[in-house]
From TrEMBL:
SUPFAM superfamilies: Cysteine proteinases, Granulin repeat. The keyword Disulfide bond applies. One of its GO terms (molecular function) is cysteine-type peptidase activity. PROSITE patterns: THIOL_PROTEASE_ASN (PS00640), THIOL_PROTEASE_CYS (PS00139), THIOL_PROTEASE_HIS (PS00639). This is Uncharacterized protein. Residues 351-408 form the Granulins domain. Keywords: Disulfide bond, Glycoprotein, Hydrolase, Protease, Signal, Thiol protease. GO terms for biological process: proteolysis. Belongs to the peptidase C1 family. It comes from Zingiber officinale. Residues 34-91 form the Cathepsin propeptide inhibitor domain. Signal peptide: none annotated.
Length: 426
C-alpha cells in the first residue's frame, strides 16, 4: 500500500488497469480473441503501450459489432475486420480522401442524359471480366485515384477486350492540377489528367507505394491505356445512374466514415449513413435480394474488408441522394479510340558517344578534368541524382546527397546544407 502511495497517480491507474485485465475473466477472453485477431491480420505494434491502446479500441469495436449483430432486423452484419483496432476518428484520418468540394459547377461539366436500349434487371461487370482485383490504398487518402483507375480499367476492357490494371501511383504523384495525392482529390480531374497526358501507365510499370512520391516523368510517355473524355451523371438522379452502370463501371462519391461502414462484413448496407461525401468507390453492378435492390460497390481497402473488398449497398432507398450520398457525385470516362501501340522496351542509357549504361540506370561521371568527363559509372537507379563526390547517387524522391553520412535526404535545413557542402569539398 505504501508503495502505491509513492507512485504518481498515472502509474497507479495503469497498474489498476493491468490488474483488471489480468483478473477479469471477460477481459481474458477478449485478450485471447485479440491475440488471435492479431495473428490473422498480421498486425505488429511498436510497444506494449501501443498494443494496450489498440486492445482497448478492439474491445470497444467488438461491443459495437456484437450490439449490431444482435439486432435480428438488420440486413447486414459487422465483423472484426482488419480495421477493428482503430477508433472511428483514427480510421477516418487514414482511409478516406474524396475532395467533393473540388467539383466544378454543373454548367461547366458534360452531363450524361441517358442511353438507349433495355436495361437488364441485374448486372455484374466482374462476370464480364471488366473489373480488376481489389486493391488497397493503405494509409493514403487517394481513394479518388482508385475509383478513377477502376472506371478506366472497365471501359478499356469493354472497348478493347483487354483488362489492364492501371497505376494509381502515377495519378497520386503526377496529377497536381487540382488533386493533391494522399491529401485528397476528385475523379473528374483524374480523368482530365489522363486525357491531357494522352494516356496512363500500368500498375506493373508504375507500382503503388501507398504514399505520394516524386512524379517519374520518364514514365509519363508510357501511355498504355487512353480515354477520350468523361461525363458526369446529373446529381441525385438514380435512374440515370442505373443507365450508366448498365453500360460500364461508374465512379461515385459516398460517405465512408461511419463506424458501421468501417466494420461492415456482409449483407445489404442500409446505414445509418450521412450524405457528407468523403470517400470514392466504384459501382460495378447491381442486383436484388429478397425484394431489396442494391448496388455492387468495389472499395479500395483490401480484400479483408467487406465481402472480399466489396459491399452491397441499398439501391432505390426512396432518398434522392441515395444511400450514403451515392447518387450525388457520379461520373465515368468515355472511350472509342484504340490504345497506342506498345512502346518498345527501353534501350541502354547513353552517357557519351562511346559509353552506355544498362536500361533503367543513370550515368554518373566518375572522373572529370576541366569540366570534361573522361570516365563514367552506372547508378542502378532510374532518374537518379549523381552526388558531387563521384562515388554515390540518390533516388529522385530523395535527391539530396549527404556524402559525409553516406545517405540520401528528402530535404534539409540550411545549417545541414552548409555542413554537407563543406564535407563534400573537404
Amino acid at each position: 500500500m505504501d508503495f502505491a502511495r509513492s507512485l504518481p497517480f498515472s502509474a497507479v491507474i495503469v497498474i489498476a488497469l493491468i490488474s483488471f485485465l489480468l483478473i477479469s475473466p471477460t477481459s481474458l477472453a477478449y485478450s485471447d480473441l485479440f491475440e488471435s485477431w492479431i495473428k490473422a491480420h498480421g498486425k505488429r505494434y511498436s510497444s506494449e503501450g501501443e498494443k494496450l491502446a489498440r486492445f482497448r479500441a478492439f474491445q470497444d469495436n467488438l461491443a459495437f459489432v456484437d450490439a449490431h449483430n444482435a439486432d435480428g432486423n438488420s440486413s447486414y452484419e459487422l465483423g472484426l475486420n482488419s480495421f477493428a483496432d482503430l477508433l472511428s476518428h483514427e480510421f477516418r484520418a487514414a482511409r478516406l480522401g474524396l475532395s467533393a468540394g473540388l467539383a466544378a459547377p454543373r454548367a461547366n461539366r458534360t452531363m450524361f442524359w441517358g442511353s438507349y436500349g433495355s436495361i437488364p434487371s441485374s448486372l455484374d461487370w466482374r462476370n464480364d471480366g471488366a473489373v480488376t482485383s481489389v486493391k488497397d490504398q493503405g494509409s493514403c487518402g487517394d481513394c479518388w485515384a482508385f475509383s478513377a483507375t477502376g472506371a478506366i480499367e472497365g471501359i478499356n476492357k469493354i472497348a478493347t477486350g483487354s483488362l489492364v490494371s492501371l497505376s494509381e501511383q502515377e495519378l497520386c504523384d503526377c496529377d497536381q492540377s487540382y488533386n493533391n495525392g494522399c491529401n485528397g482529390g476528385l475523379m473528374d480531374y483524374a480523368f482530365k489528367w489522363v486525357i491531357q497526358n494522352h494516356g496512363i501507365d500500368t500498375e506493373d510499370d508504375y507500382p503503388y507505394q501507398a504514399k505520394q512520391t516524386t512524379c517519374l516523368k520518364n514514365k509519363l510517355k508510357r501511355r498504355v491505356v487512353t480515354i477520350d473524355g468523361y461525363k458526369d451523371i446529373p446529381p441525385n438522379n438514380e435512374k440515370l445512374l442505373l443507365q450508366a452502370v448498365a453500360q460500364q463501371p461508374v465512379s461515385v462519391g459516398i460517405c465512408g466514415s461511419e463506424r458501421s461502414f468501417q466494420l461492415y462484413t456482409k449483407g445489404i448496407f442500409t446505414g445509418p449513413c450521412s450524405t457528407a461525401l468523403d470517400h470514392a468507390v466504384l459501382i460495378v453492378g447491381y442486383g436484388s435480394e429478397n425484394g431489396v435492390d442494391y448496388w455492387i460497390v468495389k472499395n479500395s481497402w483490401g480484400k479483408s474488408w467487406g465481402m472480399n473488398g466489396y459491399m452491397h449497398m441499398l439501391r432505390n432507398s426512396n432518398d434522392s441522394y441515395g444511400m450514403c450520398g451515392i447518387n450525388m457525385l457520379a461520373s465515368f470516362p468515355t472511350k472509342t479510340s484504340p490504345n497506342p501501340p506498345p512502346a518498345p522496351p527501353p534501350g541502354p542509357t547513353k552517357c557519351s558517344a562511346l559509353t552506355y549504361c544498362p536500361a533503367g540506370s543513370t550515368c554518373c561521371c566518375s572522373w572529370r578534368i576541366l569540366g570534361l568527363c573522361l570516365s563514367w559509372s552506372c547508378c542502378d537507379l532510374e532518374n537518379a541524382v549523381c552526388c558531387k563526390d563521384d562515388r554515390y547517387c540518390c533516388p529522385s524522391d530523395y535527391p539530396i546527397c549527404d556524402t559525409s553520412g553516406a545517405q540520401c535526404l528528402k530535404m534539409l535545413f540550411l545549417k545541414d546544407a552548409l555542413h554537407i557542402d563543406k564535407a563534400a569539398k573537404a
